[in-house]
Amino acid sequence: MLVKRVVLRFEPLGRRVKARVGRTVFEVARDSGVFVRSECGGKGLCGKCRVIIRGEGSVSPVSRLERKHLTRGELKAGYRLACQTEVLGDATVFVPEESRIEVRKIQVWGFERRVTLEPAVKKFYVVLPKPCLSDVQADWERLVDQLRKKFGLKTLTTDVEVLERLPRVVRRGEWAVTATVWNAEKIVDVEAGDVSSESYGLAVDVGTSKIVVYLVDLNSGDTVAVGAIENPQIMYGEDVISRITFAFQDSRKLKSLQRILVRGINAALEEACKKAAVSRRNVYEAVFVGNTAMHHFFFGIDATYLAVSPYTPAVSEALNVKAEKIGLKINPNANIHALPVLGGFVGPDAVADILSSRIHRARKKQLLLDIGTNTEVVLGDREGLVCCSCASGPAFEGVHIKHGVKAVSGAIEKVRINPSSLKVEYETIGGEKPLGICGTGIIDAVAEMFKARIIDEYGRFNKNVKAPCIKEENGEKQLVIAGKDETVTGKEIVVTQADVNEIQLAKAAVYTGCAILMKKENVHPEDLDQVFIAGAFGSHINSENAVFLGLVPDVPLRKIKFLGNTAVTGAKAALISTKIRREAEEIVKKTRYVELGAQPEFQSEFSKALSIPHRDLARFPTVKKWMEDFKQC
Asked: Does residue 1 surpass a pLDDT of 50?
């Protein structure tokens, strides 16, 4: 059967793509590498994949879902939802700025603990005695004997790929050879001459929305280059549940998610290797961390049952897999080590956070939060840890927010409101014209709205507050952050009632996780010695506003510490130290996982945490005092 194909031209990229009639514009864009925003993975629920179509009769009629998300004026101007628009003929598709996935400010650095250098991969240089008629020992046995005599390596194995190359390598080096050994038991590579100085490893942090890799010199423990990229799986949905749902449909789609993820890691790896002028063949080990869903996707493991009660992972122990099997473009015989899973959605990245923060070594109680789409919360000290995962949703990434964007250039990241004049001030990333508002900006905005009495403790707009920055549209009040003449899009950037509610849901989820763990351990805010906030979002959040909003427990601001990307630094620690890997195993043994949804007090705690800062103000004495002082003024 002849399949009819047409041509789509994507602007402003100027890319021409052949497409099959009947496919959606979103599918064609995704498969051809044109990144169009979609928080719902192309289901027509988010309305963010807006494009402008030129070509009369070239696409399907406007759907019911499109009429829900697009105004009459927008439809008249040619706006369509890419995921709802089927291709019928040749057309030009313009992707407006607000619909493009742009390079954002990815948090690559984090707090690093000092560790003793003890990598699993080491290189050994030896000179072998040349064979002769009176000494016809085989090349492999000759190499193994010298490694045993000189370095005490007793029981060594290898793969046939190494044996295939060995005869040529030792003779090319005139019997001087460097053997790369993993875990003191397996030779993974042989090279002619002395190249023992060229030994590298990779620390890989795969988040729901970003990928960060550290290229590390295994001889010194130094990070020689960093690579970072958006997680390309984002085209299948902003959150892990959308991706799990996609993969559940059939095994081929799971393989697609794995391939696109590995392709993204390889791109970040290539970036790092180019910066440091390092051959990828000289990268002999990678340590992987990520949430449990990313862990399963990376290894091609069915993640379906993570999304179904009782939310069990397929495997929790540490894994060691050959790089060639996964498709990671480092030395084909290199080992990929994944740190263990703690449970549910608390994956190897949380173990890495614990390793970097060292709360498992603390004498006093400490709280660790890695805030994101899924927020991991860990509470404890050297006596033991308890952890949980909060479904905080992607609002902190700007998702489900009317004018929400990620932390790209032009995103509003800081907001201040004068409580007397109600004048709004903001700062954008890079000082550019405003494009939208990112997670830290919306946190600031809602907290500042509460301080200025624009919203009440239930998040509702105060009907008695009137100011030029407050407008009404379709019967609902909105706070104008930036006017039409200030923005890139020529549209106002506003905070709506729905936006406030999204942030309330997200912050309530995080606080509920903290509250339940603290109750279980009989810990009060004043008992906490430190509150660590990890991750990209946590690195830029205003700690005062986080407390005012009720995102974190009410502790003195001096106790709140921002650690940055501790997932990747924890992975690096495990890369350069086998002792740290053993420590990770001990952490799993002393950590108790709590499934929040199964806790009888979950609903009541969540309901109280929806208020700003919290329905039980006794838990927030700092804010309580501020409110009393405010009333007196």
From this structure: no
* Model confidence pLDDT, tens digit, residues 52-86: 888 768 899 999 999 998 888 788 878 899 999 99
State the CATH number of the domain containing residue 265.
3.30.420.480
Instruction: Cite the beta strand spans of 175-318 per DSSP E.
Output: 176-182, 186-192, 200-206, 210-217, 223-230, 283-290
Handedness of CA 79, 83, 84, 85 (dihedral sign): positive
The amino acid at residue 82 is: A
Average pLDDT over residues 254-266: 91
97-101, 390-394, 541-545: least confident range:
97-101
Single residue among 173, 192, 211 that ends a domain in this structure: 192
- Among 357, 548, 537, smallest CA distance to 445 is for 548
Same domain, 73 and 145: no
Q: Which residues contact 364 (CB under 8 A, 6 or more apart)?
A: 381, 527, 529, 530
Residue 335 lies in a domain: yes
Q: 239: domain range?
A: 202-342
Residue 424 falls inside a structural domain:
no
CB 457 within 8 A of CB 611: yes
Residue range 448-460: average pLDDT? 92
- 100 contact partners, CB below 8 Å, separation of at least 6: 35, 36, 37
State pTM to two decimals: 0.83
